[in-house]
């Protein structure tokens, strides 16, 4: 095949978004005869979209140098911008900043009014947003959008709308911010935006929607991102983040096993090539699932690994410490986090955990203050998810304060909201507290109904810590003393996840005998499943 043929095939592949084929053909052509700047830009983008980050950087750098040599300053600035932007996204801030500075120097040779000036305002605006000055960022992104609209540049239009929407959301102006995020996504879905800008916008909008607990939008745009990724089988950079978002949605729907499989696939995808900072969010999500299932050692390892990737380990790690009975550690961590949180969005992420940990430690006044703040934020954002979160926190505080009647009313509303959102675990937690309300009011029959309903969900999900808490609330008189020493031994092995056959081999007894012991344990303790038995063993220290 001639060099001309390879280039022609590469351009066809590029137009059809066959990024792997485009990269291979352009690389082959470049080995025979150096590519021109247009094909070098294609090579850089194809390399980036297939996960060959250093090859992408090399392609943009070469294209930049050729454009400079030919006096095509505007295109040289574009190459510097995208190279700097992709380096920033990978966490290489010094290199990225260097390329942005080079682009700004070249701008001095250009007319005062150019679309490239808008592009090079983007990193400055992002820096303002990241350093806690969303108002300045909003002003800068508004200027970016004005330039983009004036020159009719689709990529810059999308980036400008995205940045200003993020800034307004961070400032607490959720409705105005979300409108701009939707506008940015509309620009992307019409197909006028380049794949590189589209991927950035998709992921950033989903994160913004998730941060303000706009579940409907997060699900809608995650589904759109999944379709977009599926249309480009060779795509690497955004698929891992898409899998993490899908896992989070599956978790909310109560599909915990599928959520774990999805996030494990995300970790495998993000490991090749290594170095993608999205691995931090994948590890945090894995930690959340492990914590909820009671696999505390593995959960801690996942949270710590998330921290190693630059992702905050809180509030998950603080909630883990609470579940482990290390209340003082949980309090110290969550107090630090809430003190450092600035702005309604950042605080909303941790307030519900703060309420739970404060109430567990007997700090009712602090819990009340945080629950009130969360309710005010929920009212401002007006999203059903955050209102359900705030309702649960308010109900827990009222119950702790002794106002069972008011607590029951608020918790019923929260439970209804969780059911409407299709969130079975959160609905079960609300139902467990409703059971406590019924107990406080002397309605033991209703308390039993609520308890059984919550227990069924926790058992289906293998939510061992929640089952243990339920045991503590509704079976306070039960103890391990009603079991024989052999039954305690069998219960401990059941709690490790062993099957009857494995227990029989471990204890050198028949499987029939093990089955009889398990039946006796369930009958004496009033348990209905192995998950409930595991929770009981955790609660009573029988492991």
Automatic annotation (TrEMBL):
GO terms for biological process: regulation of DNA-templated transcription. Residues 476-541 form the HTH luxR-type domain. GO terms for molecular function: DNA binding. It comes from the Bacteria. This is LuxR family transcriptional regulator. The lineage of its organism: Bacteria, Bacillati, Actinomycetota, Actinomycetes, Jiangellales. PROSITE patterns: HTH_LUXR_1, HTH_LUXR_2. It comes from Haloactinopolyspora alba. InterPro entries: Sig_transdc_resp-reg_C-effctor, TPR-like_helical_dom_sf, Tscrpt_reg_LuxR_C, WH-like_DNA-bd_sf. It holds the Pfam family GerE. Coiled coil: none annotated. CDD domains: LuxR_C_like.
